[in-house]
Design a protein that fits this description.
The chain has 283 residues and is mainly beta. The protein is 10% helix and 40% strand. It contains four helices and 29 strands. It has a nine-stranded parallel sheet, with no helix packed on it. It has a five-stranded parallel sheet with strand order 4-6-9-12-15, with no helix packed on it. It is globular. The protein starts with a helix and ends with a strand.
């Protein structure tokens, strides 16, 4: 409480009339704590809130958090480089700032490359377009949690493009957890889950219109759902594991593995033909 007490002392207060005081709720040093993106002029440094003289500091602290949370809005952050670069470099993003929690991230490369230093972060969505493939890696293992709450597709990958998660080691892993999917995923390209990497559906349905290469782990009570493609789905990988899989597409799908493919949940074929090529299965 010492941190907050400082900002409620007299030098941070301005008397308006005998019954009210004006408290400067957001000095610049508290902007990081609030984690808010306020679009109003000068609010980022001095948002003024009249408060009755008798309200105690605890009430002010509670009101502070309610106010700042209600004024937090997601932004669309677009990658500015043609190819590789560090996620942690502000200049590599639109607006000159790195993505914040609950933002929508858009990456449209024109030169294939690795985007490194992926942090552990919660995002509303990730959209991959452009004309070149994307590899996401971390410096010490990270988790992207997708908490999708609006009409933007939770994970979008256009046809012909490849999104690779992780660098095939625990130290470079970029694990993905789907906390919530309000608008279905649109994975029309190829999603590659590398070794030591995990995709956790958290009870959600991950819709794949394209293909998946899984050298890591898929887990959760939800499912990977193959539906809506323009051709047969390719399911490939080395030693890997899936939770629940469902094929619901007249184009069908082909599983080809170079190691043991383990399906720990249910394999459901609603429509289409599932072709099993040379590999070892574990059900």
């Amino acid at each position: 409480m010492k941190l907050f007490k400082k900002y409620f002392e007299p030098e941070y207060m301005e008397r308006k009339n005998p019954l009210t005081k004006t408290i400067l709720i957001l000095p610049s040093s508290l902007n990081g704590l609030a984690n808010s993106k306020l679009a109003m002029e000068e609010v980022s440094n001095s948002f003024k809130l009249p408060v009755k003289r008798g309200i105690k500091t605890w009430g002010l602290v509670i009101l502070f958090f309610i106010l700042t949370n209600s004024l937090s809005f997601a932004a669309i952050k677009t990658w500015q480089l043609a190819g590789a670069g560090s996620w942690a470099t502000p200049a590599n993003w639109s607006g000159g700032t790195v993505p914040l929690p609950n933002d929508d991230v858009v990456i449209n490369l024109t030169a294939a490359g690795i985007i490194s230093n992926i942090p552990t972060i919660t995002l509303n969505s990730i959209s991959i377009g452009g004309t070149a493939n994307v590899i996401l890696t971390s410096a010490a293992g990270s988790i992207i949690t997708i908490n999708n709450t609006n009409a933007t597709s939770a994970l979008s990958l256009i046809a012909g493009r490849t999104l690779t998660l992780g660098g095939a080691t625990a130290a470079t892993a970029v694990n993905v957890t789907f906390q919530a999917i309000t608008t279905a995923t649109n994975i029309a390209g190829t999603l590659i889950n590398t070794a030591a990497n995990t995709i956790a559906d958290n009870g959600n349905t991950i819709t794949i219109q394209g293909s998946i290469t899984n050298n890591g782990t898929h887990s959760g009570a939800g499912k990977i759902y193959f539906n809506g493609g323009a051709g047969a789905h390719a399911i490939t990988g080395a030693t890997c594991s899936f939770g629940n899989l469902e094929l619901d597409d007249t184009f069908g799908a082909t599983i080809t593995g170079s190691g043991t493919t383990t399906i720990s949940g249910n394999l459901t074929i609603t429509q289409g033909t599932l072709t099993l090529n040379a590999f070892t299965t574990g059900f």
